[in-house]
Amino acid sequence: MAYDVIIIGSGPGGYVCAIRCAQLGLKTACVEGRDTLGGTCLNVGCIPSKALLHATHMLHEAEHNFAAMGLKGKSPTVDWPQMQKYKDDVVAQNTKGIEFLFKKNKIDWIKGWATIPGPGKVKVGDTLHEAKTIVIATGSQVASLPGVEVDEKTVVSSTGALKLGKIPKTLTVIGAGVIGLEMGSVYARLGVEVTVIEYLDAITPGMDGEVQKSFKRLLEKQGMKFIMGAAVQGVTTAKSRAKTTYKLRKDDSTHEIDSDIVLLATGRVPYTDGLGLESLNIATSKRGQIETDSHWATNIPSIYAIGDAIAGPMLAHKAEDEGMAVAEVIAGKHGHVNYGVIPGVIYTHPEVANVGVTEEQLKEAGHAYKVGKFSFMGNGRAKANFAGDGFVKLLADKTTDRILGAHIIGPMAGDLIHEICVAMEFGASAQDLALTCHAHPTYSEAVREAALACGDGAIHS
Ligand code: NAI
Question: Annotated catalytic, 460?
Fold first, then answer.
């Protein structure tokens, strides 16, 4: 069968691209080798981890806040197989949803793993398919760390961490990035002794410094332990236990820590195995990312690439935006992604969210800026919900007042960030936000207060 477009990979980049291509009238197919659509994000990433984060957050609320709100009585106990089932059901609903959308939009799902024998050709199994255009949306896989062998039982990646056979007593997490802190939070809330080993001196590299400090302090309050400035040298396993060896950077001393489970969360790398990129001579960077021009075309003009397989933050929504934009380009329209306004969210409690530049970046660039900060302690709704930890920090140009970035740690930060994203897309000033009526009592008032703090001052601080 000859197609206008064949997309390889059905993650958030690939499936969104397929739907938009079909909506634009292109005959579209999507190749996916997993049993279900949705890629890493839906099957073994964003969605299942959010289910476990939600369930364990409910437990945390019941254990820590219910009594104070006058809710007394039987406290919940954890039925781990049921929690796993709940998570699996959520995943199944989502992956079936994509299947439904494919049918609705008349997108063919070609089942199997694809190779690209040449421009315009996609081979799956023994069948050769033809397409005017190919989009590579094959995503990423766990980066390996020398001396650490993932067996998905005792030494796990995020995939194994989502389906441990039983709740361990102790967990060592290698890497204080997004995956380490989200999955570490899940298990800490289940009563597991969680120790995070991080190479750098701060958690979540690249994030605003004040948020990093506050975030670490709040996670420590929840029981997570951190060993900072430590490079993991290797992990050995024996009798279902793991020994992690690490070296402290400050004095080169070597230490060991024993645990039931080790989670390797030191980053991800593009997944392009088996596509045949080398024989096609498709250019890749040293980090294995497929090189593309500003319209996501590789050095072969009819082959495009998007998402985790190319440069930029490895985020589902960045891949989705690229998927929609590249579909527009293929259909002869104008596709655009504003890489300066891509939010990042960590779904711990409190949540952490950011968009735009950090204060550190502004300082380094010598950019004159002002800061508007507001603590959730001054927000009535947050106080009522025992969610007063955290703050909103808004960065604006000192002269023009234009919003340059925002950093939120606090309740629903991942949702609150979006009014700032919209404001930034419209080139708004902090005053524009400050003059916008925000309903009372909502968490979003903290965003407005931070905007007011960029001007004549917040009201409730
Ligand atoms: P990451 O890049 O976020 O963090 C990895 C951490 O490991 C870094 O802090 C790094 O300094 C540390 N590290 C590296 N080598 C080390 C060593 N030998 N010893 C100790 N520490 C070491 O990577 P992560 O958490 O694995 O996430 C992978 C990707 O998935 C990221 O790009 C992330 O953005 C994405 N992701 C996003 C989510 C979200 O948006 N909520 C959720 C999960 C993943």
Answer: no
